[in-house]
Design goal:
Keywords: Cytokinin signaling pathway, Phosphoprotein, Transcription, Transcription regulation, Two-component regulatory system. It comes from Urochloa decumbens. Helix content is 42%, strand content 19%. The mean pLDDT is 92. It has a single domain, classed as Rossmann fold.
């Protein structure tokens, strides 16, 4: 009898910058996570409506149309999505912004550039297999 290995945890990475999406995707994949990348909060909500098997969302704060903060609020207001951990990333170290996101339900606020050690710490703490 063969056993099927469990699927790797699925992370949804949201950033309007193609470079930042590539960086976070590479870091997550090197830690053996399945990654879906999208370029906006609206696209993230579309993915979440189609795929309920997302274990963590990592999103940029500052994006056009829908900010990472707005995405966080939409996720936490949804009965179906609110249990998914949301991590906010930003290149701006603004204590007010950080506090606002944490109070709204973000699990973590990372200052860019995100490092491999940030990803390892997050994934071991937030993703339960």
């Amino acid at each position: 009898m063969t056993t099927v290995p469990p699927e790797p945890p699925h992370v949804l990475a949201v950033d309007d910058s193609i470079v930042d999406r590539a960086v976070i995707s590479r870091l997550l994949r090197s830690s053996k996570y399945r990654v879906t990348t999208v370029d906006s909060g609206k696209r993230a909500l579309e993915v979440l409506s189609l795929d309920r098997n997302v274990h963590m969302i990592i999103t940029d704060y500052c994006m056009p149309e829908m900010s990472g903060y707005d995405l966080l609020k939409r996720v936490k207001e949804s009965a179906e999505l609110r249990e998914i951990p949301v991590v906010i990333m930003s290149s701006e170290n603004s204590p007010t912004r950080i506090q606002m996101c944490l109070e709204e339900g973000a699990e973590e606020f990372l200052i860019k550039p995100v490092r491999s050690s940030d990803v390892s710490r997050l994934c071991s703490r937030l993703i339960t297999r």
